[in-house]
């Protein structure tokens, strides 16, 4: 059995996993995947090694020799050990452990993912919506421990990635280009900017064809340097 360093920045625990795929010892599956040319399915792990006394033993929450508790949180189904208090809980529907507290989430059977309770009556279901990558960071959404949101276009995205996009002035979905939230207040400000900015005389009579990314309708509108407004839905999320 090959051994590796016991340093791990992903989890706080006093045991390491014996990877059945390569018979090597790693503190966690992420440490394994970072250096190996294959991935570790931690649910297949049958043995662990105590980091205190180095005893190799079957999966369990305590060491069979020195009796230390390996972590404050232990899930036998996921082979997950962690002493970081992240309010972990196991969701049978997702088939894995989540963070954030069971009381704050519900499992949507159609979407096949745990969502924040605040989304229970407002989200639109899409079958297995989380079985994709985040369009920003490209992490798997279903297995990710980060909270996600479902915009009106229903292209799921990590909450923190969504906020970063808005922070840098990007409001459209990276996949389809649809506005990801209610932009009405922003469009009203844009109306005022356009109203107060007169076009040069040579451009005042110019018309241009546009396609609205929000309502998907085509129109002919007056050209303006600050934005091209859709006459049907009022959005400035348009292209020529």
From TrEMBL:
Residues 134-176 form the RING-type domain. Pfam families: zf-CHY, zf-RING_2, zinc_ribbon_6. Residues 70-133 form the CTCHY-type domain. SUPFAM superfamilies: CHY zinc finger-like, RING/U-box, Zinc hairpin stack. GO terms for biological process: protein ubiquitination; ubiquitin-dependent protein catabolic process. SMART domains: RING (SM00184). Residues 1-68 form the CHY-type domain. It comes from the Eukaryota. GO terms for molecular function: ubiquitin protein ligase activity; zinc ion binding. InterPro entries: RCHY1_zinc-ribbon, Znf_CHY, Znf_CHY_sf, Znf_CTCHY, Znf_CTCHY_sf, Znf_RING, Znf_RING/FYVE/PHD. Keywords: Metal-binding, Zinc, Zinc-finger. GO terms for cellular component: nucleus. PANTHER family: RING FINGER AND CHY ZINC FINGER DOMAIN-CONTAINING PROTEIN 1 (PTHR21319:SF53). This is RING finger and CHY zinc finger domain-containing protein 1 isoform X1. It comes from Octopus sinensis (East Asian common octopus).
């Amino acid at each position: 059995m090959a051994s590796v360093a016991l340093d791990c920045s992903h989890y706080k625990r006093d045991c390491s996993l014996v990877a059945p795929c390569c018979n090597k010892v790693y503190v966690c599956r992420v440490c394994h995947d970072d250096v190996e040319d294959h991935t570790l399915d931690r649910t297949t792990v049958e043995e662990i090694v105590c980091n205190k006394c180095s005893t190799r033993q079957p999966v369990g929450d305590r060491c069979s020799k020195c009796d230390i508790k390996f972590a404050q949180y232990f899930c036998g189904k996921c082979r997950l050990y962690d002493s970081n208090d992240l309010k972990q809980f196991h969701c049978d529907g997702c088939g894995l452990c989540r963070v954030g507290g069971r009381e704050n989430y519900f499992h949507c059977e159609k979407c096949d993912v745990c969502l924040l309770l605040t989304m229970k009556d407002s989200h639109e279901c899409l079958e297995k919506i989380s079985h994709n990558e985040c369009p920003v960071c490209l992490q798997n959404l279903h297995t990710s421990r980060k909270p996600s949101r479902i915009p009106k276009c229903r292209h799921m995205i990590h909450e923190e990635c969504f906020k970063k996009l808005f922070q840098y002035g990007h409001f459209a979905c990276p996949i389809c280009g649809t506005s990801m939230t209610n932009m009405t207040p922003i469009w009203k400000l844009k109306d005022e900017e356009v109203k107060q900015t007169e076009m040069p005389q040579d451009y005042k009579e110019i018309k241009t064809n546009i396609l609205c990314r929000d309502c998907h309708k085509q129109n002919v509108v007056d050209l303006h340097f600050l934005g091209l407004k859709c006459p049907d839905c009022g959005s400035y999320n348009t292209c020529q």
